[in-house]
Design a protein that fits this description.
About 20% of the residues lie in helices and about 35% in strands. The chain has helices at about 10-15, 60-65, 80-90, 95-100; strands at about 20-25, 30-35, 40-45, 45-55, 70-75, 105, 115, 120-130, 155-165.
Length: about 170
């Protein structure tokens, strides 16, 4: 798909469907995935991007730090239970992907895998990161999202390719 012509209901993607963020190297068998429901899609520095956030306590954080590319996959609603399962387990504790019923596969442009069942796949290369700074929260309620003080790291990924169809 031409990313510059992509039309999405981004609020449905982030708030209702959720997506899988996957980072690592498929060919080496070294990767992990997690369900994400916070982020953005847009244009920054004249590049199409996705922005995702990962807490440093998450296993996927280690992969985001180690590798330069990642995928963001959206799924038809029929796979909601698989995403809930993947979001409630850690890859540190075993092969949660194999237990989920989803099938990882090689991506087209990046080392990170995508999933056979995904209806929409963003293949991305990291271009920026930063950490949330609680002193800069302008809404005091945001601090309540961090009872463990494990503030997210923000990653911007340039969208190198978009594949699939818009999910419903």
């Amino acid at each position: 798909m031409d990313v510059l012509k992509l039309e999405l209901d981004v609020f449905d993607l982030w708030l209702k469907q959720g997506m899988l963020l996957t980072c690592g190297d498929y060919l080496q068998g070294d990767y992990n995935t997690m369900t994400v429901g916070w982020g953005s899609i847009g244009v920054m520095w004249n590049k199409p991007f996705v922005q995702v956030v990962v807490r440093p306590t998450r296993y996927t954080y280690e992969f985001m730090e180690k590798y330069d590319t990642f995928t963001l996959c959206a799924f038809p609603k029929a796979f909601r239970k698989d995403l809930q399962f993947l979001g409630s387990r850690s890859g540190r504790d075993g092969d949660k992907i194999a237990r989920s019923g989803l099938t990882p596969e090689a991506s087209i442009l990046v080392a990170a895998p995508c999933f056979e069942q995904a209806g929409l796949v963003f293949e991305c290369k990291k271009i920026y990161f930063d950490d949330f700074k609680p002193a800069q929260f302008l809404d005091a309620a945001i601090e309540g999202k961090y009872p463990l003080k494990d503030y997210h790291r923000i990653y911007f990924g340039e969208i190198l390719g978009v594949f699939g169809i818009e999910t419903t």
